[in-house]
Amino acid sequence: MSAPGERSSPRPLAGEGPGERAVVRTHAEDPSPLLEAAFRRIEAETMADVPILNPALRVEAVGFTRRQDHWLGIVITPWFMNLVLVPGKADTWQGVAPGLRLFRKFPSGDFAFLGSNEPEVGEFQSCSLFSPMGQFACQAEAREVALAALAALQAEPVAAAPAPSKEAFEDPKQAALERPMSKREFLGSVFRRS
Asked: Is the pLDDT higher at 59 or at 180?
């Protein structure tokens, strides 16, 4: 049975045998509250005494928006930060069985997502960004990194600087002009002038 704003539809999952079908629970509305409930339950039931938990962090779903009919955002927990994709429309969802990997294309590149399924949300896919979470001092810092990661994921890659010209390889002074100065070179030039 689906909750309000959700639909179920039989769809094959990558990794299923011939003739096997799974019901995909889709979400018409932001699945953040369902994801938060699932990971709070997991924290209470299986993670409570695990030493890698960062006590400065709590479960939070961040930045969920529609991307190609589905919900994309990040889930922060005291033990990981994952990019998460939740089905929004059954006929465009490419499912994958729990524990199996599926590569998804984004403007910034291809990323491997693992299939998952939790009772609160149903099927979803996740891509690990950080684990464990010891480098984050507070929830606000983790949230800021999560939002920056979402922006970077959906941004086109910046083109690399053009290769130095043929003359640059023959003339060291020209080569220095055609590439950025290293910190060592910069500081060396500053101190030599003094």
From this structure: 59
Domain annotation covers residue 1: no
17: Cα separation from own chain's centroid = 29
Beta bridge partners of 124: 116
Per-residue model confidence (pLDDT) at position 174? 61
Q: Are residues 175 and 137 in the same domain?
A: no
Alpha-carbon distances of 31 from 3, 42, 92, 135, 190, rounded to whole Å: 11, 17, 17, 27, 55
- Please indicate, yes or no, whether residues 78 and 171 belong to a single structural domain of this protein: no
State the Cα torsion 74-76-82-88 to the nearest 10°: -40
Same domain, 143 and 167: no
In this predicted structure, what is the pLDDT of residue 10? 44
Contact (Cβ atoms closer than 8 angstroms) between residue 102 and residue 125: yes
Coil, helix or strand for 152? helix
Closest by Cα among 64, 31, 62 to 142 = 62
23: nearest Cα among 38, 1, 43: 1
Q: What integer is the mean pLDDT of 93-116?
A: 94
